[in-house]
Amino acid sequence: MLKTVVTVLKVEDRKITIEACEKHDFRVFKIFEKSDSFTSFVDLRTKRFILDSIKELEKKVEAKIKDIFILVSSSTNTLKVETLSYKMPLKNEAYEAYEAQNDLNNLLNESLEKLEQKLIKKQIISTRIEDNNLIQNLSLVTLEKTFFDDLVKTLKEVKVNIAQIRLLDDFKISKVNEKSAISFIKLDNFKLTFSLFANKNLIKVETIDLGLNNLIEQISETFDLSFKMSWNLLNLYFTQNESFASNVLVNKFQFETLVKKFFENVEQKYLALIYKNQLTNLAIKPYLVGEKNLTFSFKKLVSSFNEFNVLSNSKSYLVSDEINALVEELSQNVVKKDEQTLTLESFQIASKLILQTKRIKHKKLALFL
């Protein structure tokens, strides 16, 4: 029987703990926990503790432990904290907030480059946002190089690899104040980046692939088009200097259904992220930010969000009107009234006119961007 065992080594102030959990039929059970005092990884007592604990765990699960997750508390003296502040007026609500966040990230990266030789890990642990001005105080948390080197050497002795190092503080939030929860969502390069704020603290950042290639493959299979032709059906400007046969007919209703299904999948992934943070979607106020040179109006996230009345706030934007406007324009001006079909060539011509009207300068553009 295949077992899934996750092993964690926690370092908190002067305490070290090794824990393990095992997955059984979608449920997770803790199967091992052992603690000891901690000074450093070069200390013989700590080495012996790690060695004995891993051997004991391996005997219990009857398998070799190959990887271990390291969680380090910000209360330990092995962490260095530097605080950076940034302030920018909010001229256009969520968009300006995101633009300021980009500037702030650049500021962080510049600071990191100066400290590159000394630092092993970086992580943002706190953010404060105000309504009229975006004021962000970020703490840059870094792991001392000696701590990291000693840890690697110790685990090598027991032939265990480091799967990942994270701040222990990230995993101590079981439930946040739902009334103060705000999420920022960014669509970029076929991915959705989800940042969750609660009580004015950034508690979650996660990126998911929206699966554009899956959408292209679906269209390719449905309309029996080649992958290249399917891509060009969506990536409009990418084909402006290429010619394709105009005898390929696409049913407008089928195309619209596929695109809508694509956004429904995005919705489900977004809701899944909310649930992972134990927040009811009633409490979430979503803000969606588009590309810098494009204008977006994200007003609804299909049926389930409307049912919960989540988007009553005037600042809430989700699911692009761009795609709705494009499909509507195509249905009115391109689809032949007698056949209710459109050719690939006519789709491309009409789409270019629509995009040019909107003064979009991108050379490579997908419908949902």
Word description of this protein:
This is Cell division protein FtsA. Keywords: Coiled coil. With 369 residues, the protein is α/β, with parallel strands linked by helices. The chain is built from 9 helices and 13 strands. It folds into 3 domains: 107 residues, Nucleotidyltransferase, domain 5; 64 residues; 152 residues, no CATH class. It has a 5-stranded mixed beta sheet, with helices on one face. Strands 10-9-8-12 form a 4-stranded mixed beta sheet, with helices on both faces. α4 crosses α5, α4 runs antiparallel to α6 and α8 packs across α9. The chain is globular. The C terminus is likely disordered.
What can be said about this structure in brief?
The chain is an alpha/beta fold and 369 residues long. The chain is built from nine helices and 13 strands.
Key words describing this protein structure:
disordered C terminus, alpha/beta, globular, 3 domains, 5-stranded mixed sheet, 4-stranded mixed sheet, Nucleotidyltransferase, domain 5, 9 helices
